[in-house]
Amino acid sequence: MPAYDPRAVQGIGVTYATTPMGADHTAGYAITANILGVGGNVDPLKPEGQIELSRNLQIATAAIDATGYCLFIAFAILDQPDTFQDMLDVISAFTGQELTADGVTELGKKILDFELDFNRRAGFTSKQDRLPEFFKKEALAPHNVTFDVKDEELDQVFNW
User: Fold this and answer.
1) How far apart are CA 28 and CA 53, in angstroms?
2) Domain ranges, ordered by start, for the chain
């Protein structure tokens, strides 16, 4: 697994398991709310709130990636609400099309739907949207936690 252990940062574990890009922590960088308290606070050691956190971050990341902006603009957007509107204004000026917050969400969902469709056609199923079993069985010190997000919940990430 890259970058962060999903037992200690459960939101990133949801992203690792479900992102159509394949276990990429930048596809839904839950470190923001799980560790840094940027854009909210979701307890990194508990499964509650992780599905919604990862889903929303994966949608936003897909859209931001498509614009050419660096993913790490998200820190400014999450910390400074006016920055999001500034980004929308720049993209709208560049493309000549008015982009709204809802439009960003729809763009991200559409991109993820394309990626998921590609993966399904390549033979991937929900069986591949899982972490290795040892993350669920072997506790990680010092908190002695395992990855506790249930498979049934992982299957809900892309239900919109």
Assistant:
1) 8
2) 10-154
Q: Can you read off the two tokens belonging to residue 62?
A: 């897909």
CATH number of 10-154: 1.10.599.10
Tokens of 22: 């394949």
The DSSP code sequence of 78-104 is: HH-HHHHHHHHHHHHHHHSS---HHHH
With a cut of 70, which residues of the chain have pLDDT below it?
1-2
> What is the model's pTM?
0.93
CB 32 within 8 A of CB 64: no
- What percentage of the chain has pLDDT greater than the value 90? 85
Q: E strands of the chain, at which residues?
A: none
pLDDT digits (tens, 9 = 90+) for 50-88: 999 999 999 999 999 999 898 888 888 888 889 999 999
Distance of CA 16 to CAs 28, 49, 154, Å?
8, 16, 11
What does each C-alpha distance from 143 to 57, 67, 102 come to in angstroms?
25, 39, 39
